[in-house]
Amino acid sequence: MTTSSPGRSGEFDFWKMSGTGNDFIIFDNRPGAVKAGNGDFFRSICRRRLSVGADGVILLETGSAAPVRMRYFNSDGNEAEMCGNGARCAAWLARRLAFVHQDRFVIETAAGLHQAAVEGDDVSIEMTAPADYRDRIEIPGLPDSGTAAAINTGVPHLALFRERIDDLDVPALGRPLRYSSLFPGGVNVNFVSVVDSGTIRVRTYERGVEAETLSCGTGCVASALIASRLKGVSSPVSVLTPGGELTVEFDPQWRQVLLRGAVTLVFSGRLGPSAPSP
Q1: pLDDT above 90: percentage of residues in the chain
Q2: pLDDT at 9 over 70
Q3: Of 89-93, 144-148, 254-258, which gets the smallest average pLDDT?
Q4: Which residues are tagged catalytic?
């Protein structure tokens, strides 16, 4: 595998990866050729049907406090502190690109340092220690909002519990909540259904993507933790998303939280000279 340095006439190599349907365009940015501040470039290549298409862009770089650094940009071009599925995909590719030569290593993100473990196509990532938990949130205009709770698992998440979530119009319900005045910086919105004491179903409206994604790693972690506090769900929690299944493990004090699941290399390619400049 090669790096994302320019090829002929400014061409750039990339890898398209998916973590249970949450998909990313990844650049090996050790040469520094892809500029982090170019939101127009990230928005352009994330556009589905008109370019590569993805929920976000990941720049893999050499870290200052770890062998691997991940910088994550949502499809709206803005940088986010953390992405659980993105970190799992980044770990898998970093191992294949020989950033590291062992299967367990540390990844640096804007949310801190995370232990990663790569076992074939199964990748686990130790998540940011959760913060800012609050429940019994009353949301104006939402009759059953007393079942809502929020937590920050690297990025802020709101969880609302429903008996069934299969038939929900997640974009219509999630969009106004994502911009709620209760969350000045915006929030990701998760709709959660408890299947049994070790299983939940989750659908997520993702901030920065501004749509429902097939899976959201930090959202699955947030939903599992909140379900453990409010609904008696116990670790390990199987989280069923539209894109597949993830597992969330945690201790009772939430001091160590782990996200685990499969990742897929969808394809690799090269952005041609007609693509916007990074």
Answers
A1: 85
A2: no
A3: 144-148
A4: 83, 216
127 pLDDT more than 60: yes
Q: What is the CATH number of domain 131-254?
A: 3.10.310.10
Q: List, by residue range, all CATH 3.10.310.10 domains of the chain.
A: 8-123+263-271, 131-254
User: Which residues on adjacent β-strands are paired with residue 105?
Assistant: 116
* pLDDT, greater one: 138 or 4: 138
CATH fold of 8-123+263-271, please?
Diaminopimelate Epimerase; Chain A, domain 1 (3.10.310)
Whole-model pTM: value is 0.92
Say which residue the tokens 């400049």 belong to. Answer: 277
- Which residues pair with residue 270 across a beta bridge? 13
